Amino acid sequence: MDRRPVLIAGGGIGGLSVALTLHQIGVPCLVFESVQNLRPLGVGINLQPNAVRELYELGLGAGELDRIGLQTREWALVGLNGKQVYTEPRGLLAGYKWPQYSVHRGGLQMLLYATVVERLGADAIRTGMAVTGYRNHADGRGVSALIETRDGRRLEIEGSLLVGADGLHSAVRAQMHPNQPPIQWGGAIMWRGVTPGLPIRTGASFVGLGTHRHRVVFYPISHPDPVTGLAAINWIAEITVDNSGGWTTGDWNRQVEIESFIHHFEDWKYDWLDVPAMLRGADAVFEYPMIDRDPVPTWVDGSVVLLGDAAHVMYPTGSNGASQAVVDARVLGAAMLEHGVTREALQAYDAQLCGEISSVILRNRGAGPFGLLNLLDERCGGAFDDIDAVIPPAEREAFMSRYQAAAGFAKDRLNAAPPTIAPGARVQDAERCCGTTSS
């Protein structure tokens, strides 16, 4: 067995999940992160039961996840008139063996980071070191990661394999697919923030309100304060505009003033929610274009593999981007258990996930589970008295079942599936080692 470590480009959710998985199965690894100091950045995300199962099997149980978020109880769509379109229980209430969690992305990343440091040691994560490319070895064994440090040094670090988990602007993907189309923007603009507020409905509900082209999504990502009853409410306000001129600001996220967009939602006031007040209550608001990348035919080039957003950045309409990164890491680990720390393992991972997840990218581009709002708009312009007369219950249920199956968290299938990685499974004879040369 190759004794060189698996190299991981990126210390985000995907890269850290790979590190924990490799440690669990006895494979040495090194993580390279471009920033010098990791901080809990980002906004709220949802972890679907398929990802929570994998985190539990990594030894991150309900205690750890409850500290950084809360278990989601309900997923609901509400029309612009304030009337309910669809609702379903989530997680344990839906009959899954594992909960769904609403958490702050940065909180999850820092939990994974602390766990990597605890289990693998602080030297397993090299910060201030950006992977800018790679060189597959001519003998077909191993790879060199090309590194640039914060102080301008250039290094080549040898490993058995390289995992490109370096996100939307992945340098690894850019080398693997130099002719890939540019980032795709479909015309949706999102403004995101977190506001202290009283949780509504179940107290842990994910709610989408509005139309498929003009909506607000919100859900709590913390437990209520025992004194005030207020929780951190993560929200996304979204409109769709003409995208023929492309994204013109030059920034993929930037802080903006609330007055730059509040007029789109100023009259969204209901007896159960004052949307303008919720938006104005955030300390900071950030603007993002809703973007993805066209699928690529493979995530593998020799001893190099893509994972997480580097492989499949997708619209956040299905709440499964971060979840899929966790699942990717576990499937990759399982492939190494079967095939060793080899190129064959990367090919097996690619064969299992690349085509399947490419279809999820395209499904999310078509509104994902929010596609029910598309149907509502087509059939009645969004105004209705009786939702059952517009979209019958059986049709709503069938629509959501198809999406859950495509996204990998259909309940019966997930509950019946054996562990991705069997308890105690180890790749034989793995030993920690690494080589470093300057250039």
Brief overview, please?
This protein has 13 helices and 21 strands.
CATH superfamily caption of the largest domain:
FAD/NAD(P)-binding domain
User: What is the total tally of β strands?
Assistant: 21
CATH class of the largest domain: Alpha Beta
For the termini, the CA-CA separation is 27 Å
Q: Report the CATH topology name of the largest domain.
A: FAD/NAD(P)-binding domain
- Beta-strand percent range: 25-35%
| Total of DSSP H or I helical runs spanning 4+ residues | 13
Rg for CA atoms? 22 Å
Query: What's the CATH architecture of the largest domain?
Result: 3-Layer(bba) Sandwich
> Domains counted in the coordinates: how many?
2
Largest sheet strand order: 6-5-14-15-16-13-18-17
Average of the residue pLDDT scores:
91
Low-confidence stretches: 429-439
Tell me the overall shape.
Answer: globular
Class of secondary structure makeup: alpha+beta
Helix-residue proportion: 25-40%
Major sheet details: 8 strands, mixed
